[in-house]
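Supplementary notes for students who missed Thursday's class. We covered one full example, reproduced here. Read the sequence, then the structure, then the short commentary at the end.
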Amino acid sequence: MVGPLIGGINAGDPDRLSAELCAPQLLAASHHEGGLLAGCRRVVEARRPGAPVFVTHRHGTEAIVSLLHAQLSARGVRFRTGHPVDAIEMAGGTRRGGVTIRSHDGAGTFDGAIVATPAHLAGPMLASVTDEAAILDEIAMVGVGLVALALDPAGVHDPPSGSGFLVPPTEGRLLTACSWASSKWPHLGEVDPILVRCSVGRRDDLAWADLDDDALVDAISRELGDLVGLDRPLIASRVTRWHAGFPQLEPGHTRRLTPLLDHLAEMTPIRLAGAHLEGVGIPTCIRTARSSARSLLASFG
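Structure (token representation):
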């Protein structure tokens, strides 16, 4: 149970992941006097009756970003996209001097900065700020892919009754997880095609990355056919690739990051945000970003 669940969500090897960060609910459940399964039952029983297991935005999570962009723009916030940052440096040598952000087309000096890029990009950006930034380069990053399929309902013999399923590595498949989106999200069940989102990629498994989009869709369709029975052509498909998208938070991760975070908080107007801090969940990323923003604002005191 733990392997496919935690390993699948984090695209990693559960024996090399921090239970504290990647599976806090399971870690708490494991301390139950009756054991892990009894602890999990207690968690389920404590849920608010009728509360959904999964939550999303009806128009997709992109709608959240679009709304945030619109609201901030209305308040005068300026956005600059398409300007990759090469380096962030301390301006004037002190925290009160602000930071200089350098990109390929110039540089600008600002009161402070929050670096919300993946760890393997943040490390080189901050190399001139502190040697402690090298710890970010040591965080393993795993690439994953999402294969979205639209299926003819008449061609699916045995659709899952739940929201989807997870596939353990011992199965030897490319498929790592499948969300039966039409069942998972009621508003998607209102359309005729069955919508399915299949995940590929986990730590030490890059076989999927060697396939082009067409070959990957064919391979996933065959595997899905083995599991639920498909005998009609796909209506549509879409492949999304997230190279180096999932940080692997190993045991001791927080302790290793602490010297860097402490240095930034005490000596610079720079803070970090992102999945490489405390985990890949959207609520977790929002919480850590808010904390970083409040800390930066407080430093201007």
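Commentary. The beta strands are 85-90, 99-103, 106-110, 113-115, 141-151, 164-166, 175-179, 194-200, 236-247, 270-272. The CA atoms of residues 100 and 109 lie 4 Å apart. If anything here is unclear, bring it to office hours.
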